[in-house]
Amino acid sequence: MKCNICNKKTEETFLKKPIGTYVRDSKGKRKIICSECQSKLSIEEIKAKL
């Protein structure tokens, strides 16, 4: 899976679960955000970029 902000491949656990979080956009769809983007941006900035 790729981060929807920086388009880098997200890391996965051994069970193939992505390391990151899901954020819903304005249409209600889930988008994955990597941990690097989470630490750099605030939640308002993340929602604005989606």
Structural summary, described in words:
It is built from two helices and two strands. With 50 residues, the chain is of the alpha+beta class. 26% of the residues lie in helices and 20% in strands. The protein has helices at 35-40, 43-49, and strands at residues 20-24, 30-34.
List the topology elements:
Elements (H helix, E strand, L loop, with lengths): L19 E5 L5 E5 H6 L2 H7 L1
Antiparallel strand pairs: 1-2
Task: Please supply descriptive tags for the structure shown above.
single chain, 50 residues, alpha+beta, two-stranded antiparallel sheet, 2 helices, 26% helix
Bin the helical content: 25-40%
Span between N and C termini?
16 Å
Strand content: 15-25%
Q: What is Rg? A: 11 Å
Q: Mean pLDDT score, rounded?
A: 90
* Helix-strand category: alpha+beta
Question: What string gives the helices and strands in order?
Answer: EEHH
Shape: globular
The number of strands is 2
Strand order of the largest sheet: 1-2
The biggest beta sheet is recorded as: 2 strands, antiparallel
Low-confidence stretches: none
Summarize the structure.
The protein has helices at 35-40, 43-49, and strands at 20-24, 30-34. It is of the alpha+beta class.
